[in-house]
Amino acid sequence: MSTADTLQGFKRDGRVVIVGASLAGLRAAEALRDGRFTGKLTMIGDELGEPYDRPPLSKQVLTGWVPADGTTLPRRRDIDAEWLLGVPADGLDLANNHVRLADGRTVPFDRMLISTGVRARPWPVEAEAALDGVFVVRTREDAAGLQRAVAAGPSRVLIIGAGFTGSEIASVCRERDIPVTVAELAPSPLVGGLGAMIGEIAADMQRAHGVDLRCGVKVTQLEGDAQGRVRRAHFSDGSTVDADVVVVALGGIRNTEWLRDSGLAVGVWGVACDAGCRAFDLNGLVTDDIFVAGDVARSPNPMYEYRFISLEHWANAVEQAEIAAHNMVSAQANRWPHLSIPTFWSIQFGVNIKSVGVPTYADEVVVTQGSVADHRFVAAYGYQGRVTAAVSFNNAKWLDHYRQLIERAAPFPPPCPTPDQPLDAKPVPVDFPGPTLLAQGATVVVTGHDPGERRVTAMRQHR
After folding, report:
1. What SS3 class is residue 19?
2. In degrees rounded to 5, what are phi and psi of residue 324?
3. Taking a C-beta distance cutoff of 8 angstroms, is the pair 299, 274 a contact?
4. Residue 462 pLDDT class (50, 70, 90 cuts)
């Protein structure tokens, strides 16, 4: 049978399993059906209910504008799938092409997509994390519970972590005139994602809106009362703050534990795959039946020297899922690479923050246009003399211009495209924090290789 016949047989009668029934998983399933895959499609997810959108959870849901159960993702088409929800995947048998579920069942496949995403990093002390009034924000249930707590008018909200999610929640609380304390171990908010200069601007913005921002300190203990409700937090500098709502916003953990003994190249930054979304095994060999998409994927990008990059971006999850689905049902010569430039947005304290490119892949940053004092500007990022990213505050209309600069590796610093270039504009070091803080605050991470970490044990098979 020819390769073309084999592919047509797979498209007609094959079995595809998608592990991770959220945004990337749903969009991949729709793309498979659009690509004329008529075989059996199985969706596996650890949450009950239909796939839903996560960005609104720290924005529209928290304000009460959209109910938590109103975030269900729209269906572009019927996918005719078997849904196995409420039970997580527990293992992967590559030798026999089976996914093991936590309830003991096994699900066979011919090709599989891993789109298990990330989960919220919990407060590390289990008893303190269980106190009434302590929240993380990742699921609909998380957001609904926090929305009710904020709507009740707490005396103070403590937010642990000043990344994008923590800062957005702080913004919502201040809009409601709720006293807010934000604790951040790094020198400033958003520093893990955008660097020190933007972090200082974000810090000034938060304090101008009445946030009690405490940087360079660590929360060492959450204290509860006799009824098991959180009442006080202790800090590493010896100070305390009374709060009856605590939000733990320390970033995410990629859901890869179920793949630990699978033989795939899996680590804390996700599942390594090539630009065509095919997973690597431990020996660096590409697999042809296992694909990866979304927040859990870690793939090389030619525009960034083929470095492996992990992204927690909505648009990336959609684009990567559609490319993975296309490549599943296409011959080698017709497969597509995932080469998109990341984009991201956040609204906080009345400012629309948007980025294009990879700010964490930079050694310098400069304000190229606008006014920092007015919180209306664009900053360009550069690495070794070329443009790699840009961030705008209330000035997003120019980001497409910077996208074009990134695509053609334009020299850094770039000329200002408008007459409003600051007179004192000059590049400064980006100054990102160390890997531990970066993992908690960045939405784009250039993972590379850490020579201090042994990731793989080589095993030679004799034949």
Report:
1. strand
2. -60, -45
3. yes
4. very low
Q: Show Cβ contacts of residue 279 under 8 Å, excluding neighbours closer than 6 positions.
A: 114, 264, 265, 271, 272, 273, 286, 287, 290, 291, 292
What lies within 8 Å, CB to CB, of 158 at 6+ separation is: 180, 181, 182, 183, 219, 233, 241, 243, 245, 246, 247
pLDDT at 69: 82
Q: In what order do the strands lie in the sheet with 219-224?
A: 219-224, 230-235, 240-242
What is the structure's pLDDT at 428? Answer: 95
Q: What is the DSSP letter of 249?
A: -
Exposed/middle/buried for 121, CB within 10 Å: 0-12, 13-18, 19+?
middle
DSSP string for residues in 232-257: EEEETTS-EEE-SEEEE---EEES-G
Which tokens sit at 158? 């403590």
- Give percent of the chain with pLDDT exceeding 70: 93
Q: What is the pLDDT of residue 456?
A: 42
446: left (phi over 0), alpha (psi -120 to 50) or beta: beta
Q: Which residues contact 322 (CB under 8 A, 6 or more apart)?
A: 27, 28, 31
**Whether the Cβ atoms of residue 5 and residue 276 lie closer than 8 Å to each other:** no
- Amino acid identity at 194: L
Predicted confidence (pLDDT) per residue in 128-156, tens digit:
999 999 999 999 999 999 999 999 999 99
CA–CA dist 330, 337 (Å, integer): 12
Q: Which pLDDT score, from 0 to 100, does residue 451 have?
A: 31
Name the amino acid, one letter, at 113.
Answer: L
Let me know: does 62 contact 172? Beta carbons within 8 Å.
yes
Q: Treating both helix axes as pointing N-terminal to C-terminal, what angle do 140-151 and 164-175 enclose, rounded to 10 degrees?
A: 30
Residue 241: left (phi > 0), alpha (psi -120 to 50), or beta?
beta
230, containing H or E segment: strand 230-235
Cβ neighbours of residue 408 closer than 8 Å, sequence gap 6 or more = none
Tell me if residue 310 falls in helix, strand or coil. Answer: strand
Contact (CB, 8 A) for 369 and 418:
yes
Structure tokens at 87: 């039970």
Reduced DSSP (H G I as helix, E B as strand, rest coil) percent helix, strand, coil of the chain, to 5: 25, 30, 40
299-to-78, 154, 243 alpha-carbon distances in Å? 30, 43, 41
Q: Which residue has the tokens 């795939």?
A: 264
Res 268 pLDDT > 50: yes
Coil vs helix vs strand at 223: strand
Q: Each residue of 54-111: pLDDT tens digit? A: 888 777 887 778 888 888 888 889 999 999 999 999 999 999 999 999 999 999 999 9
- Give the model's pLDDT for residue 232: 98
Interval 417-453: pLDDT, tens: 888 888 778 999 999 886 554 444 444 455 554 333 3
